[in-house]
Here is the input.
Amino acid sequence: MENGTGNARSSPDQRAATERIDEARASGVRLIESLRRLWDGVVEASEQANIDDEHDPEGATVAFERAQLRDVLKQAHADMDDLDRAAERLRTGDYWVCDICGGPIAVERLAARPTATTCIRCAR
Here is the structure.
């Protein structure tokens, strides 16, 4: 396979990248499922407690927990979207190419951060 700079990418690199993305996706799915269970628990507990978020001291805590879980879930979904884009970039050969300068992204950088779209120099 060739990347956008015309350099052939070895199949071991390709397989390793695919495995990293797949492992990160599986981990993301588990995280989202866990967060949804937590969300359901918080929502159920708040419905049963009949808490008035505005006037009950415990209501602020429940509202904070809901907001925190909502934000973490939102980030987990965004991370999954990034992994989907990384898989597409891998499929097209753009995975190894910096979005900014068009130079190569080091295999080591992609090993540490499979969703990276820039080389180290441009990331700084």
Q: What stands out?
A: Confidence is low (pLDDT under 50) at residues 1-8. The first helix runs from residue 11 to 49.
